[in-house]
Hints:
The complex is a heterodimer of chains A (about 150) and B (about 475).
Chain A: H1 2-11, H2 16-20, E1 24-26, E2 34-40, E3 50-56, E4 67-71, H3 103-115, H4 126-132
Antiparallel strand pairs in A: 1-2, 2-3, 3-4
Chain B: H1 10-23, H2 31-37, H3 39-46, E1 90-93, E2 98-100, H4 101-109, H5 129-134, E3 140-142, H6 145-152, E4 155-157, E5 168-170, H7 174-181, E6 186-188, E7 202-204, E8 217-218, E9 225-226, H8 228-238, E10 243-245, E11 252-254, H9 255-262, E12 269-271, E13 282-284, H10 285-295, H11 297-335, E14 337-340, E15 343-346, H12 347-356, H13 359-362, H14 368-448, H15 453-465
Antiparallel strand pairs in B: 1-2, 1-3, 4-5, 6-7, 8-9, 10-11, 12-13, 14-15
Helix pairs in contact in B: 14-15
Amino acid sequence: MREKKEAEVRQRPDPDWRASSPTLQLLPSDDLKVQHVDMRIPDNPLYPDTYRLRFIIEKDYPFAPPQVQFVRPHPIPIHPHIYSNGHICLNILYDGWSPAHSLQTVALSIQSMLAGNTDASRPEGDERYCATAPSNPLFSRFMFDDDSV
Amino acid sequence: MDVIAQELDQLELETRGQQDSVNRGLLPPQGELLSVLKPEDVSIASSPNGSGYDMTDSLDEAPIDLRTLVYVSIPEHLNCPICQLPFINPYTTICGHTFCRTCILETFKSPLGNKCPLDRIELNYTEDRQEAEEKNYNDIFPAPIILSNITDDLQVRCLNASRGCKWVGPRWSIKQHLVNSCDHTRFPCEHELDNGQVCGQLTERRFLGEKCPHKLFECAKCGDNINAVAEEHHLKNECAKNFHKCNGCNLEFPEKTFENHESYCEKIHVRCPGKQYGCEWRGSREVLTQIHSLECVFVKLSGYFELQETKINDLADENKLLRSQISTILDSITQGKMTNLGYSLQLEEIMDRDRSADPGRLFDSLQDKDYVQLMMEFEMLRTEFNRLRSLASEFELNKQLVTAVANENIQIKDELHNQTAALSSMRQQIQFMLLDRRRLRSKLVDAEVTPPPKESSSSGRFTNKL
């Protein structure tokens, strides 16, 4: 599968990336394993900034999800599913992963999650989580019980 | 939403430690992975000629990995949703989606399990052929042959493109090209060295000949030791005495700096930068910069032209994007399904949802619970609708019956009328006959009993009574 993974990563940052979603921008990267995407949220006054997502491609990608989180120096968006350390609670990044997802579809999902939000708060137990959370969000155990946002 | 953060066990803490040291650059981050993701760098380092296809043993050809091929153009619809490359040995699922065989089988081994990666429909599949046959599993099967034919016909570049091969051809012929004709495929050199051993170095086909191409000789120009394989590279990039005369300034420069010189030589003849817009002027660079570029209309307009060009390109891009989006939507409509974050919805459900929820929240509220609830509601409404429909048809039947009865009733009434008419006419006839008879009898009696009038009158009264 190794060529496949390599090809996959090589294929994704195609020139059409920007044309198909102008509010998402894949940053050029020398390391195929780590990719960054800058994201703007149009039409939601809660999110005026540009936010940066970091993708770390895991060994089994695309059959296992990549590590996805928001990173500084850009602000971490305030959302009831996003912890202040940048970790995102979204089922498709964990149990709900499907190999048919790509970096772009993941970024789009996160973007739409932010675009539809009206609740400017951090998740419950944010401080406690950030104090104990592993650096790799894939090692956290999220409960996907709130489907309202 | 909550997190069971306290449940981090020792293992995870250890992993965190490792991760942190990786981040600080203390440990190589999964060295294996790095090499996996950057095979090109590795092979470039090992061979100066770039990566490509090597035949280490002509009897046992190295397998050709079709996934490393570079395509001239890829029609998006021919891409496997998993590897994002044109299908290789495509298989189709019962839900109508197509993947490379290896991709879908690998998916079945992943945490997603035996489900379609696009709509998450359960697929029956087992690796055990006998079991599959017993249980009659046929949820995934080879895609129509025409699909393989189309993908095999896609134009690809040679695997040795980085070594300089310009070949472009259909995918099915790449093996034939690499093994039999490509000049840049490397083979082990079979010539004997001076010490009697076989040379064995991997060498491109174009260098293989009667003499070992690795034998050193002196460069005719500078006297450095080179061999046939390195000659081209040496003359172009290293040799200090391989002079090349400049057409502009008539000075000689070594080949390795010549390209550099051409880009700034003041005397060399160049074309006007506005030539793509129609300027025919050509002359030395000196004249161009000092005179022509100041007066050429095309140069003055080039900024405007460039702007137009980028605008046209942007529009073409947008057009392409919209076209692809339309075709995806058409596809979804023909398949009767739309996928959204991996959930599949029937079109009628989406329309149902559209009417009730406001569109902005449509996609965010699409979570499991909500979805299931909507599904249940929809099912309830559907059964209710079916019940009402059957009631309506029953009612229709009753109505028909009633009209039939009413028609019959009218018929019977008519008949009854006829009967009454017949009856009354018969009664009239009988009365007439009775009258006639009475008249006859009274005549007869009168004739008989005239002499005794008393008796006659009494008997006449008698008959009358009768």
